[in-house]
Specification:
The complex is a heterotrimer of chains A (300), B (234) and C (320).
Chain A lengths: L3 H38 L6 H18 L7 H24 L8 H24 L13 E4 L2 E4 H23 L1 H11 L1 H6 L4 H24 L9 H15 L4 H22 L3 H16 L10
Antiparallel strand pairs in A: 1-2
Chain B lengths: L1 E10 L2 E11 L4 E5 L6 H8 L5 E8 L2 E2 L5 H7 L1 E4 L11 H8 L9 H11 L1 H5 L10 H14 L4 E5 L7 H16 L3 E5 L6 H4 L2 E6 L2 E6 L1 H6 L1 H8 L2
Parallel strand pairs in B: 3-8, 3-9, 6-7, 7-8
Antiparallel strand pairs in B: 1-2, 1-4, 4-5, 9-10
Helix pairs in contact in B: 3-6
Chain C lengths: L2 H22 L3 H26 L7 H18 L4 H23 L6 H18 L1 H6 L13 E3 L2 E3 L4 H24 L1 H11 L1 H6 L4 H27 L9 H14 L6 H15 L5 H17 L3 H15 L1
Antiparallel strand pairs in C: 1-2
Helix pairs in contact in C: 1-7, 2-7, 2-10, 2-11, 2-12, 3-4, 3-5, 3-10, 4-10, 7-8, 7-10, 11-12, 11-13, 11-14
The chains are: A mainly alpha (300), B alpha/beta (234), C mainly alpha (320).
């Protein structure tokens, strides 16, 4: 019925879609973390992408550097995620919180975090070298349905990042700390009045976003490589997803992440990987001109 | 219960409060009257740890509280109900109330207080799944007061509860406040110039240009010529 | 700061620069550093005008610098345009690019401008290195290697004639810095101060924030493009590696040392930091780490830069 070529093309496109879905899910995770920290603390973190790499490098140190044999990824995550949380919490308290009292502090935070990004990027290069590092796949092997081949790795990445988002959304909507976070985002003065310790919530959300993006880094670095120089691009990507989805909207972020994951996969397949970022940039400018509040922004 | 002694407050370079001294006894309703922009709200904010630069002594149940943060104060039982409500707009009435009981001291009493609040404000019970941003001005005000009560505080600072309410709602709110007082709460209220407030108050202060210009009970206040001039235009 | 003081500080800075070749004119290494000081003073001052005065948080300064450099280089190599003309055209090109970037995002608040301009920076590298860049003559990953030096009436200002080249740079740098100074002191500058104090009040005076911001975006991109193009012709080679983040952080340190919004602190900061970063060259890869850390520390510890410290001292002196 179909020619050989058509069938081949069909399989190729399916591969591209799967790749788009698995990277898209990680983008969603990153975008949710970004929208959280911006929505709650109003501080924009330019070092966001470098925390992605931090997650990757922490995992690499454990798995490759120290040759951790027992437990594999569950143990790695159990060690790395609290570590990322501590790093995020500490950095917020040490570097962001003192700026909060200053005039024009949002801009000062942007400059400071950009400096932090430059610092981390060059630090990675000094410590780990410019050569990219790779992580072993979380699960080897493939799942074959007829002629279609799904790698377990892609499936795991998708499942883990989506469950990460779901757990986060559940915590945000159903726990006391989640409610406090939403309260600070919606009305910081009101939150103070009811006795929510705002500073601690700021630091906690910063730490949670660090964990989310670092988790994304561990997941995606198995497919790509850990590139010390990539923090900036990853930050811009996460932000494009956030802006397209609408700042403050988790669901919008999900849609946008899959759109962008697909777009990147298809542009990469058709023209080559380096055009991905240009396509993203064009999409971003179009969004800003046509719909500055994003797909589902509250305009808040 | 609450004593303020020689309090000075500043807003930028300007001094807003000059040597203000106020005392509120347990179980009382104390009302601070005065024209708009003369420092009444700043005093309340200073008590509740929300003002920026404050110098002077504030003590609550004998303990100095002037350097405590708001969350510690709420935990001690001092709650603030803001003039512009400061609700959480994208949360339901119930969630807003729940957050009112955020501090540790309030958590064990959450259920009991929720029931109490719903019996005081039946309308909030009807609307408990509605978003706060969709409520009318009067309902939002009730929610703000109710949220303050959820903190299980003994001492409520209420900033201009009647602002922007129509007269009938205003009376309703005042009678509810009286009711709250009867249930054992001490209330420190700031208002602009409402005639009915005198009936509510055990003690009245008047603040003009950052200074206390009158202190006395409501009878004395109603008899004072100067006060009549500024508040009733007589 | 008053105009008088600005002129005095600029005068002293450039005056010292102008006499230095008498002593070090034959040490090419030092002369090169001094020329770099003059060039980066313009870039840092443009950035300060944009961020410190106009309140436009743009992170695209290095990108516009590189755009100007590449544009002029390509024009001179591929199309044999005389360097002086190529530099002017590069300035116009970057001005147009500035407006194109500014149009969609200047109306948006918050981190949008910073992110879009940073995105321009990020996207520029793959463009220059990739097929598009090669098609327009960027030389791909090799870069531009044979950019001709500026020549005026047949006299070539190359590194072979380092002292005359130095004075030409000085003249160009000084004119750009003076343009920036007069912009700050003009009606524009006053309008910006008003906008910074209260957007609503300024609007009621009929000051359109968008229009002014767009004009400043165009002006600073123009000047940055010009000085970038000049840099290309002086240096002779260009590489996409300029867009790596260490140059960015050095530029940021310049402005923070000078003091954001404390023009002409940026001039002073550029002189100090360019010289300082040359001294740090032996640190190798650790230099970038240090520069990044310096940005963080300076933002936290020295919010108004050296200029702020200086003003603080003077106030205390006159008060005591």
């Amino acid at each position: 019925m179909f020619s050989e070529d058509t069938i081949l093309l069909f399989y190729e496109i399916t591969d591209v879609i799967i790749a788009g879905l698995s990277t898209g899910s990680v983008y969603a995770l990153m975008a949710v973390g970004m929208t959280l920290v911006y929505g709650v603390t109003k501080a924009f973190n330019f070092a966001y992408g470098d925390f992605f790499n931090m997650g990757g490098y922490f995992a690499w140190i454990l798995i490759v550097g120290l040759g951790l044999e027992f437990g594999g990824y569950p143990v790695v995550l159990l060690i790395v995620m609290p570590l990322l949380f501590a790093v995020g919490y500490g950095l917020e308290k040490l570097l962001v919180a003192p700026l909060r009292k200053r005039k024009d502090w949002e801009n000062k935070v942007m400059m400071m975090t950009l400096g932090l990004a430059l610092f981390l990027t060059s630090l990675y290069m000094v410590v780990f070298g410019v050569r990219m590092k790779s992580l072993p796949p979380i699960l080897e092997g493939t799942w074959e349905v007829g002629q279609l081949v799904f790698s377990y790795q892609d499936i795991m990445i998708f499942v883990m990042s989506i469950s990460g988002i779901l757990i986060f959304a559940w915590v945000l909507n159903n726990t006391r700390i989640g409610m406090a976070v939403r309260a600070v985002a919606q009305n910081p003065v009101g939150a103070t009045i009811v006795g929510i310790p705002k500073e601690r919530i700021f630091a906690t959300t910063f730490a949670i976003s660090t964990v989310m993006v670092g988790f994304g880094g561990i997941l995606l670095s198995q497919k790509w490589f850990i590139n010390p120089n990539s923090g900036g691009i990853i930050m811009v990507k996460a932000w494009v997803v956030t802006a397209l989805g609408g700042m403050g909207s988790i669901r919008g972020g999900l849609y946008a992440a899959f759109i962008i994951g697909m777009l990147e996969a298809f542009v990469g397949w058709m023209f080559g990987m380096s055009y991905g970022i240009i396509a993203l940039f064009v999409l971003l400018l179009a969004t800003l001109v046509l719909r500055p509040q994003g797909l589902r922004g509250k305009g808040e | 219960m609450l004593n303020v002694n020689n309090l000075n407050a500043y807003y930028g370079e300007a001094q807003v409060l000059h040597n203000v001294s106020v005392s509120v006894g347990r179980g009382q309703v104390v009302v601070m009257l005065g024209p708009n922009g003369h420092g009444k709200s700043t005093l309340l904010k200073a008590i509740c740890g929300l003002a920026e630069s404050v110098a002077g002594e504030i003590s609550y149940q004998g303990q100095p509280i002037d350097h405590l943060s708001t969350d510690k104060l709420v935990n001690m039982g001092v709650a603030y109900i803001a003039e512009n409500r400061e609700l959480f707009p994208y949360m339901t009435v119930q969630e807003n109330l729940k957050l009112g009981a955020y501090v540790k001291a309030a958590r064990p009493h959450e259920k009991k207080n929720m029931a109490k609040v719903f019996s005081l404000f039946p309308r909030l019970k009807e609307r408990r799944t509605q978003l706060a941003s969709t409520m009318s001005g009067g309902e939002a005000k009730m929610l703000a007061v109710a949220r303050g009560l959820m903190s299980n505080a003994d001492f409520l600072c209420i900033d201009e509860p009647s602002l922007g309410l129509q007269p009938s709602l205003r009376l309703e709110l005042f009678s509810t406040i009286k009711e709250i007082n009867k249930q054992g709460k001490t209330i420190f209220l700031v208002e602009q110039n409402i005639p009915h407030i005198a009936e509510l108050a055990d003690k009245i202060y008047v603040m003009e240009e950052g200074c206390i210009s009158f202190e006395g009970n409501s009878k004395e206040a109603l008899g004072d010529k100067h006060l009549k001039e500024i508040f009733l235009g007589m | 700061m008053r105009l008088k003081h600005m002129i005095a500080i600029i005068g002293v800075c450039y005056g010292i620069m102008a006499v230095l070749p008498i002593f070090v004119g034959d040490i090419r290494f030092v002369m090169n550093i001094m020329i770099m000081c003059l060039i980066w003073a313009v870039v840092a001052s443009c950035w300060d005008l944009m961020m410190g005065f106009a309140g436009i948080f743009s992170f695209g300064q290095v990108a516009f610098f590189v755009m100007g450099a590449y544009c002029s280089g390509i024009l001179a190599i591929e199309h044999s345009v005389p360097p002086v003309l190529a530099i002017l055209m590069a300035g116009l090109f970057t001005a147009v690019m500035g407006v194109l970037v500014g149009l969609p995002c200047l109306k948006l608040a918050g981190p949008y401008i910073a992110l879009v301009t940073f995105g321009v920076h990020m996207a520029l590298q793959p463009v220059l290195r990739g097929k598009i860049g090669i098609a327009i003559g960027s030389g791909g990953s090799v870069g531009l290697l044979t950019i001709p030096p500026v020549s005026i009436f047949g006299y070539s200002f190359s590194s072979a004639n380092i002292v005359p080249t130095f004075y030409l740079t000085l003249l160009l740098s000084l004119s750009c810095v003076l343009v920036i100074m007069f912009t700050i002191k003009s009606y524009w500058g006053v309008a910006f101060l008003a906008l910074k104090d209260s957007q609503d009040f300024a609007m009621s005076l009929g000051i359109s924030a968008f229009k002014y911001k767009l004009m400043v975006f165009a002006l600073t991109s123009f000047l940055t493009g010009i000085i970038g193009a000049y840099y290309g012709h002086f240096y002779g080679v260009l590489s996409y590696r300029m867009l790596d983040l260490d140059l960015f952080s050095i530029l940021m340190v310049m402005m923070l040392v000078g003091g954001l919004g404390h023009f002409p602190g940026s001039v002073f900061g550029a002189f100090l930091v360019v010289a300082g970063s040359e001294l740090m060259a032996p640190l190798g890869a650790y230099r970038a780490v240090t520069m990044g850390a310096l940005v963080v520390i300076l933002v936290l510890a020295l919010p108004n830069g050296m200029m702020g410290l200086f003003i603080g001292w003077r106030k205390r002196l006159s008060a005591g």
